[in-house]
Amino acid sequence: RKEVEQDPGPFNVPEGATVAFNCTYSNSASQSFFWYRQDCRKEPKLLMSVYSSGNEDGRFTAQLNRASQYISLLIRDSKLSDSATYLCVSKGGARKLIWGLGTSLAVNP
Amino acid sequence: NAGVTQTPKFRVLKTGQSMTLLCAQDMNHEYMYWYRQDPGMGLRLIHYSVGEGTTAKGEVPDGYNVSRLKKQNFLLGLESAAPSQTSVYFCASSWSGGGDEQYFGPGTRLTVT
Q1: Pick from B23, B73, B26, B35: which is nearest to B51 by CA?
Q2: Closest chain A residue to B44 measured between Cα atoms?
Q3: Burial class (CB in 10 A: 0-12, 13-18, 19+), B20
Q4: 36-75 in A: which are within 8 Å (CB) of B?
Q5: Inter-residue contact B68 to B76 (CB < 8 Å)
Q6: Most B CBs within 10 Å, among A5, A39, A43, to test the B interface
């Protein structure tokens, strides 16, 4: 089993839709989690960190469920510009990030 | 403030040739990383550095060497390129390894024929 698993998608949604991605992790000792966004043929960029209490940044909400060992990303009112691959990341140990393979999102007009 | 830059952006090598990829950051970050990204494999850490003059192996270090002679630069060398090293290479940097955001360069697309 991969340490960080994501549904690769693609998720095809219309503009304005709400979409959610889940990501499961296997290391119960993982302390930190992140969502990165990667546009086609571009570098990954941090979208948001995931805190135990959950956090929200505009249309984006991230949640952590330690009991079930998953994190989620909710995107409300999807925009065309949200089309990208979303990478789930956990901090696997000192100086090491464990990267998921990504979930592809396509927002259609 | 350019962030993280990588040179070259594209390169085609023949099997057995060598090359060096250069990464530079102007954010005074202590930590620097080299990743490769392949379809179906995700981002995999090749080598990393926790400060000037230090290097350490990551998940897939074989066939690569690195050097961090200056804090702002992190070099990745391929001594004898193989087709299996065809990939997109990303450099990244961060303040520390403790979960700080990693800032990535734009990537180098390498093809080994």
Answers
A1: B73
A2: A99
A3: middle
A4: 41-46, 49
A5: no
A6: A43
Residue-wise pLDDT tens digits, A3-27: 899 999 999 999 999 999 999 999 8
Contact criterion met (CB < 8 Å) for A43 and B41: no
CB contact under 8 A, B104 and A43: yes
Yes or no, beta carbons of A46 and B101 under 8 Å apart: yes
pLDDT in tens, A63-97: 999 999 999 999 999 999 999 999 999 986 666 78
Q: Three-class SS of residue B83? A: helix
Distance from CA of B102 to the nearest CA of A (A): 7
Burial of A57 (0-12, 13-18, 19+ CB in 10 A): exposed
Helices (H) and strands (E) in chain B, counts: 0, 11
Q: Taking a C-beta distance cutoff of 8 angstroms, is the pair A21, A70 a contact?
A: no
